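P.,

For your records, the input lines for the assembly:
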Amino acid sequence: DGGITQSPKYLFRKEGQNVTLSCEQNLNHDAMYWYRQDPGQGLRLIYYSQIVNDFQKGDIAEGYSVSREKKESFPLTVTSAQKNPTAFYLCASSISSGASTDTQYFGPGTRLTVL
Amino acid sequence: AQKITQTQPGMFVQEKEAVTLDCTYDTSDQSYGLFWYKQPSSGEMIFLIYQGSYDEQNATEGRYSLNFQKARKSANLVISASQLGDSAMYFCAMREGVSGGSYIPTFGRGTSLIVHP
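Structure tokens returned:
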């Protein structure tokens, strides 16, 4: 079955630690995205990547970093510089980001809690 | 200014009845896409339906239809014959052209739908 997987489902982090959230897709999509969702809020874009070895900052990139070394994978690192990282993180992919018709498909999400 | 506005924080509907979830949008682009997603308590965002700005007919997908009124910039989701499993958050999203040719979606704040038996 094609889809998007995220791991872990739940993640706990101590203050000052970096953590990496995994996102893998086998849909052969070029574009991948990371969103953050806070309670009662919509989705805010952290980073997106249109192609391997290239990515762009979204609206709230500060304190986060990404890499796109393989088409299938787009890991997100939450660094210690992110002051309020407790949130639900969603990864998505689409065929490309170059058309208004492209539909995003989402993974199951990772819930990050800072202790 | 918000690009996607969902004015109903919460909605209640009786099982088997129809319900309309409101979405208005703001864009100066001629080419854009509108999407609705469902987010159950598990958290995953599930794609429901898509409407293109040039589509003349309203999109339909099973029990979901999109009431697209371009002049009013509204894209309301209609769920017919509500089921208990429809209880979830619903998000409206829009893709529009930005500089560089990338269409990055923006999302509304969502509407919580509760279906009563």
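Two observations worth noting. DSSP finds no helices and eleven strands in chain A. The interface with chain B takes residues 33, 40-43, 45, 48, 50, 56, 58, 88, 90, 92, 97-109, 111 of chain A (CB under 8 Å).

Regards
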